[in-house]
Amino acid sequence: MSAAPWKGGVPSSILGFHTMICFLKLFGVYSNMKINREQVLELRETGLTYQQIADKLNCVKSTVAYHCSEQIRIKHQVRMKKCLVNRYDVCSCGKRKMAVAETCQRWSQLERFMVSSNRTIADVTCNYIGGGPYNTVRRNARVAMKFYGGKAACKVCGFDVHVQVCHIKSIPRFPKDTPLKVVNSIDNLVYLCPNHHWMFDHGMININE
C-alpha cells in the first residue's frame, strides 16, 4: 500500500521531533551537545568514573564515553606497543613461545599428552559429560599420531586431504584398567580416510593385509 500524498504544511513527525528537543532542553538533557571535551578529559584524569563525570556535568554517560574514546584508543595503542616489545620468548625446545607462558603450545600439548597417557580407560570414562565416553581416549590418540605417527595419509589409498585416526584394536576390547599409552600405542593406531575408516569399522577391509 502506498503512503498518502503530502498535502503541505509541516509533517507531524517533524513537529514531534521539535517538541522532543524542546522538552530535552527544558530539563537540561540537551546540554550534552555543549559539553567541553577538555573539561571531560580533565575530570577523567582525576580518576572519576564515567557516571561520576556525567553527574557532575549534568549529562549522560554515553557523552562522557564519546569524549574519552580517542584518549582510550591512544592509551591502548601505547600499551599494545609496550606489550609487543617483550611479547615473545624462546621455549626450552627452541621454538618461539609467548613471554607469559612457560612453554610453547606444542611442548605444552606434549606434556599434557604424557600426563594423560598414564591414566586408564576407567579414569577418563567414569564421569564423562556428553560427546561419548571415549572422547578423551580418541583425543589422546590424535595427539600421539601428531607427534609420533609420521605423515598423515590413509594407509590404504594414500589420501591425505582429510584423514582420521583409527584404532586397529577397538577401545571397548581393552580392559577398563588399561592405560591410555597402551590403547593409543603407535602400533595400535593408523591413519585412514573417512571411507576406509568406515569400511574397516564394519569389517569390509583388513588393513594388515
Please characterize this protein's 3D structure.
The chain is mainly alpha-helical and 209 residues long. Helices cover 48% and strands 7% of the residues. The protein is built from nine helices and four strands. A hairpin with a 5-residue loop joins strand 1 (88-90) and strand 2 (96-98). The longest helix is centred in the middle third of the chain and has 25 residues, at 61-85.
SSE pattern, N- to C-terminal: HHHHEEHHHEHEH
What's the tally of helices?
Answer: 9
Percentage of residues assigned to helices: 40-55%
Low-confidence stretches: 25-33
Total strands: the figure is: 4
Overall geometry: elongated
How many structural units, i.e. domains? 2
Structural class: mainly alpha
Q: What does the main sheet amount to?
A: 2 strands, antiparallel
Sheet with most strands: strand arrangement = 1-2
Q: What percent of residues are in strands?
A: 5-15%
State the distance separating the first and last CA atoms.
74 Å
Average pLDDT across residues?
77
Radius of gyration: 33 Å
List keywords for this structure.
209 residues, mainly alpha, 2 domains, two-stranded antiparallel ribbon, 9 helices, 4 strands, 7% strand, elongated
Summarize the structure.
The chain has helices at 12-26, 37-45, 50-57, 61-85, 105-117, 121-125, 135-148, 180-183, 194-201, and strands spanning 88-90, 96-98, 164-167, 189-192. By secondary structure, the protein is mainly alpha-helical. Helix 2 crosses helix 4, helix 3 (50-57) packs antiparallel against helix 4 and helix 5 (105-117) crosses helix 7.
